[in-house]
Every structure is written in structure tokens, then in C-alpha cells.
Amino acid sequence: AQSVTQPDIHITVSEGASLELRCNYSYGATPYLFWYVQSPGQGLQLLLKYFSGDTLVQGIKGFEAEFKRSQSSFNLRKPSVHWSDAAEYFCAVDDYKLSFGAGTTVTVRA
Amino acid sequence: ETGVTQTPRHLVMGMTNKKSLKCEQHLGHNAMYWYKQSAKKPLELMFVYSLEERVENNSVPSRFSPECPNSSHLFLHLHTLQPEDSALYLCASSQARDSAYGYTFGSGTRLTVV
Q: What is the chain B residue with the closest CA to A51?
């Protein structure tokens, strides 16, 4: 069975600084990978997804993620964080159903 | 508006009550899901419906009873719940059961069992 690990439970970053969230997966074949964001009191919103092809994928809100097969990773990045990026971020892998990591909470300080 | 609507947004119920959560989507999706999100835990997939047929039940206690009367609506009937059932219940839908396009989530129902 596949699994997803997000090593960082909580990250604090200054507004305007860069952000990188880590995601590692365990899966036998080439996975479908996703990043979702959840603002307080809201459901999950899809940021971006990877199926195949170009390993660097662009998403909404200025986010991007890079798939690295050799490292079994799919890390999420944003060059310059805005206060509105404070939220919880979930990495997920699709193996006939979506399985989520435990999430990383991002706090943005002024 | 995400395309998936959940009602109510908040629900407080006693352990002896019976209540239902509702989920509605008009995206033309054929698969619908119930997830439970508890604090400090990964999202837990509870039920999967594909073309109105339940295709997965992840060892969920019988006090949770799903119903999918048509491809646009999904219910979660609750009875004799426990305090540990307090959580955010999220509904999601996707184009198909094995959709690689990700899921569309509702905003959730925040359930508190007292």
C-alpha cells in the first residue's frame, strides 16, 4: 500500500521569504501526486498535481512542486510567501483513492 | 463556492441523537467520498461511492451510515455517536472512481458530540 510522509508538522516563515514543504511517498509504480491547501474552517483546495512528464509542475497561487523519483519526493515551493498563505498543506498520492499525509501547518509572520 | 456543498456547517449533537450530514455536487462527478478529519491525525477515508454504489467501507463503526440516493447527493446518517467522533467531516467528489484528476472537497461539517 502507498503511504505519504510529511516530515514537518509546523513551519514558520517570514512574509516575503521562500517556502518549501517536504513530501515523501512510498509507492511501487509512478504515482499520481497532489498538493492541497486547507484554510481554517474550510475544505481542501487543490494546488497542483503531477501525473507524468515534466517533473516541475506549476499550480495556483504561485506554488510549484518538483517530482524526484530518485528521492521519492514531491516537495512544494513558493518563492515569496504572502500572509494569506498561512494554512495547512497536505500532500496526497492517488492509488485508486487519495491517501493523505498528516499535513504541515504554515505560519507566516510579518 | 467549490462545487461541493455540505450542510450543516456546524452540528452539535448529544450521544443519543440521530442526525444526518448532507453533501451535494453538481459537477457531473460519478464518485463521492466521506472523510473524517480529526485534530493531529491524517484524513481518514470512511466511505467511497461510485455510480451510487458503495465500493469501500474502511472499517467504519455502524453508528455511521452512508446513503447515496443519486450521483449528486451523499448523506451520512449519525446515531448514538461517541465524543471521540467529534471531528470535521469532509465530503469530496471526483470524475470517476479511479480519477487521476484529484478530488473536489466541500467545506466540511464541524461535528461536536456532547
A: B100
Question: Could you report the per-residue pLDDT of A21-70, keeping only the tens digit for each?
Answer: 999 998 777 788 999 999 988 889 999 999 888 899 999 999 999 999 99
* Total beta-carbon pairs less than 8 A apart between chain A and chain B: 51
User: In chain B, which residues touch A (CB < 8 A)?
Assistant: 2, 4, 6, 33, 40-43, 45, 48, 56, 90, 92, 97-108, 110
Rounded CA-CA distance B47/B52 in Å is 12
- The three-state DSSP-derived secondary structure of chain B is CCCEEEECCEEEECCCCEEEEEEEECCCCCEEEEEEECCCCCCEEEEEEECCEEEEECCCCCCEEEEEEECCEEEEEEECCCHHHCEEEEEEEECCCCCCCCCEECCCEEEEEC
The pLDDT of residue B40 is above 80: no
Q: A20: pLDDT confidence band, cut at 50, 70 and 90?
A: very high
Give the integer Cα–Cα distance in Å for B67 and B69.
6
